[in-house]
Amino acid sequence: MPSYRVSLAVGLLQPGVDPADVLPAAADAARELTTVEAYDVGVVRGRARITVRFDAPDDAAAHRVADAVQERVDALADTFGGQLTRRWGNRWHAA
After folding, report:
1. Angle between helices 59-74 and 22-31 (to 10 degrees)
2. What three-state secondary structure class fits 61?
3. Is 34 helix (H, G, I), strand (E, B) or coil?
4. Which of 3, 34, 56, 90 is surrounded by the fewest CB atoms within 10 Å?
């Protein structure tokens, strides 16, 4: 099964949201639909960026998972630059 990843830059949090809750919520949103392989947070160009890597049978299913992750995180914080990529060999390409 192909491996995909969705990544989102995270900005201002909604009032009352604990920063430590954002990444687990993103992973949980994906986990409700498929197997989550990994998740991580990093800093890219000075912004927090979360990444959730998961399995999906095809691009259409992967887009549904990515949309669910985006929707869950949007409820907690402002997001920017969402991107879905598929692993092909040892590289990641737009899905």
Report:
1. 150
2. helix
3. coil
4. 90
Structure tokens that stand for 45 in this block:
């160009």
Q: Which amino acid is at 77?
A: A
Predicted confidence at residue 91, as pLDDT, reads 87
DSSP 8-state secondary structure symbol assigned to residue 31? H
pLDDT in tens, 4-59: 999 999 999 999 999 999 999 999 999 999 999 999 999 988 899 999 999 999 99
pTM of the model: 0.93
* Alpha-carbon span 73 to 35, nearest angstrom: 18
Rounded Cα distance between 81 and 79, Å, is: 7
Query: Which single residue is written with the structure tokens 């009032």?
Result: 15
